[in-house]
Fold these 2 entries.
Entry 1:
Amino acid sequence: MSDLVGTARVRPTARTRRWAVGYLFVLPIALFFAVFVAFPFLRSFYLSLTEWSGFTSPRFIGLRNFQSLADDPVFWKALRTTIIYTAVTTILQTTLPMLLAVFINIGWRGGVVFRTLLFIPVIVSFVVTALLWQLIYDPNFGTLNQVLRAVGLDALAHPWLADPMTVVPAIMLVSLWQSLGFYMLIFLAGLQGIDPNLYEAARIDGAGARQEFLKITVPMLRTVTAVVVLLNLINGFNTFDVIYVMTGGGPNRASEVLGTYLYKLAFGTESGATPSFGYATAISMIVFALCVAAAVVQLRISRRARDVG
């Protein structure tokens, strides 16, 4: 009799079984996160606290790398360029795709062809894009200067990537060219979800196209806009490949961003210096912090706007 009572006591309830099944479903993604996200991050954070050339064992030095960043003029210049680049590209790559999506959504003639042409750069790799635009910007044989000379605007021909004043705007244009179609499709998908009756009711009340855009389209795309802004911010802070291929951070570090600077430090390409993985990893932690801060601020702004709306 006591054995039966003991068996009944240890028998799992239906609720316990449901919890167990739920944990089993969560276990694969939890393991994936732990192995490929949590552990690499913790490892990187530890390396940011060390002095390591990659050839010897890491030597723990505490916060000395971060203290060195405070006195590193190249770091501050790269940080300033990164923030400017991110801010400008985020504004351009949010407003222009939204406007294009609105024009295409209202039945703009040739919208399908135009949408396809805009999306083609999205499927081109970053390296190919950088090499292509490097040729376009070539001061002697580049397409851009050749066109300017052909139409009689020789005075505007310029070494676009060799001038510190024009190199960053030139790279911003490349980023806009490649990402415009992608963000436009995101906005176009959001426009498809807006109830057409809202626009009909606005027209009945005498609203014009501008009022419809500001009072209906923009508020209804609030969630989509938040996603696009967040993607632009993260991509801006992490930018590396296009800039590294096109300019390598030059001329005279005018286009140096955090991604290119930490790459040079990590692999010893900074004036033939010894690789500094620990110092470079400290910079990567700064990049990570910028991305997290951007995400938190954007989510709070979106939540506040949603609550107000």
Entry 2:
Amino acid sequence: MAILRPLDGAGEALEAHVFELSMHGAGLSVRRALEVGSVFGFEMCDGRQAGGRIEVRSCRARADNMFDVGGQFC
């Protein structure tokens, strides 16, 4: 699990399930669509990655009303 926080402080934090993690980015599942190009604070709940930023590079709807997001660390 990870937490995504809007950098501008507007809006609430969003929980994300991390299904892929690399040095350059992450694959996430979230409950709402995220705009491609938006940037969030990214923090793994287990402490592996803290204080990072991630840019949304793709967002796809799934059949179960969740969204798969591809993000690149920036």
